[in-house]
């Protein structure tokens, strides 16, 4: 069992990392251990950041919040809620997937995974909302980048680089994140029983429409048991298109969209604010896969490739739903093997996409390729890793073998 160290501040974190660097001791970086994505790694040391927690600055009028890296994301969301603000990237709560109950985890863990919710195509990815950070590199040195306003772009690309690095480059200690006003109201247009091909056509028209939707999802009929609403009068497959803003504007835009799509009255329904919020909470938090014992893959391809991608998986025992207007595919696989994973990886590459294994059987986590990467990008990643963490002491091998 590895030795667990829980520092309370940046100075203690830096000293600990420096000592591990001098001794060439690899470190597993953890916060609230709620997002076990990535390859299995063996380290004699575990750096747990949960005590380095708390909101440092919150300026509602300036639209930013500065926090310590171990701060629970729920604490941040509750603080923003008091000022009718939120995080625009719509953070994903993976607690349901892994334990069957809510657990957002920490802000550093969320940034490290760069997971964004259904609003991604409208508001941008999580990395686009990270304004600045302070971190400790692999030598125990403190580094800073960015600021607290969007116009301060010093090191802005560095923020994007660390987002999604899964703790393999630095130990984050402080983060500044952009916040946005919470939409006044939210309603969802539900289109009933479409085939996936028709669904992608509807989603494409909706996302390119001037009605400016903030969510577009397709659920095949196998998921109908998860959605029971008073306003949802049909069974089977469904499309959900979210529209947000002032109440009058939302009602008018939904009405206009139904006309643009030439929908008959018996082909659609509208979820009110409460039901709409529940629908999208279930979607962004993957509650349809709550506590699943099966394997889950996250695949991103251009929308134009989605249908062909799915057709090539007809012989694979799986279920799926589509988010981000059709470009994000959540695949739940009943059976898994290295052979099946390699087939899906090759098909994903053929369709100009990439995948991440979100949940997989434990005995495969050490051998399976959790992320797709081509040889050129692998070489670039090696050089980036060396520049931040020359002795490879941070989460070695978590993303790719040898990095």
Class derived from helix and strand content: alpha+beta
Major sheet:
5 strands, antiparallel
Query: How would you state the average pLDDT, rounded?
Result: 92
SSE pattern: EHEEEEHEHHHEEHEEEHEEHEHEHEEHEH
Q: What is the number of independent domains?
A: 3
| Cα separation of the termini | 23 Å
As a percent range, the share of helical residues equals 25-40%
Q: In the CATH classification, which architecture of the largest domain applies?
A: 2-Layer Sandwich
CATH class term of the largest domain = Alpha Beta
Please state roughly what percent of the residues sit in beta strands, choosing from under 5%, 5-15%, 15-25%, 25-35%, 35-45% or over 45%: 15-25%
Helix segment tally: 12
* Widest beta sheet: strand line-up: 4-5-9-7-8
CATH topology of the largest domain: Uridine Diphospho-n-acetylenolpyruvylglucosamine Reductase, domain 3
How many runs of DSSP E, i.e. beta strands? Answer: 18
Shape: globular
Radius of gyration using CA atoms only: 22 Å
Quaternary status of these chains? single chain
Low-confidence stretches: 151-156
